[in-house]
Design a protein that fits this description.
Order of helices and strands: HHHHHHH
Number of helices: 7
Largest sheet: none
Strand content: under 5%
Radius of gyration: 19 Å
Helix content: over 70%
Structural class: mainly alpha
Shape: elongated
Length: 165
């Protein structure tokens, strides 16, 4: 099979179609466990998620380079693919979900402390369970919100031609 741009887009994207995608959620898991683990482990989870975001952006840049061959404007299209992917992933996979889970867990721990007489260890484990169970519910709304945000701002600058998929 020839490596045409058409066939390239049909290939498996390891950053979106495999278990590797879950590395982008590492920081959310780290935030959910913040009450139970040293803060250095939470920061390590952010390092994993950031490495995932960076690797996906580089991958999309390489794919854009192959897709655009020696056409005029190749460098611009590569830069747009990298920037769009990096900004989208940084917001949708790291910053917004990390902040959201952090606040859900902080509020949960506070409210459990005010409304129950459970021991601290039970409150912390409950907070972690609440944080982990929140993750699946926040993904789609955050993804859609980031799409809207970028469509309304950054993508207008470069015409939205290389929208994150």
């Amino acid at each position: 099979m020839e490596n045409t741009p058409e066939n390239e887009s049909k290939k498996l994207d390891i950053y979106r179609d495999t278990w590797v995608r879950f590395l982008g959620y590492a920081n959310e898991v780290g935030e959910a466990f913040r009450a139970l683990v040293p803060v250095s482990m939470v920061w390590a989870s952010y390092a994993v998620a950031t490495a995932y975001v960076s690797a996906d952006a580089v991958d999309k840049g390489k794919k854009a380079a192959v897709a655009h061959g020696d056409n005029p404007g190749k460098t611009t299209r590569i830069a747009v693919a990298v920037v769009d992917t990096f900004v989208w992933q940084a917001l949708a996979s790291v910053a917004i979900p990390g902040f959201t889970i952090n606040r859900v867990c902080a509020a949960s721990l506070y409210l459990l402390g005010k409304t129950t007489r459970w021991p601290l260890s039970v409150r912390k484990w409950t907070t972690t369970a609440i944080g982990l169970s929140t993750i699946p519910f926040i993904i789609t709304p955050i993804d859609r919100s980031v799409d809207f945000l970028l469509d309304s701002s950054l993508r207008k600058v470069y015409g939205g031609g290389e929208k994150h998929e």
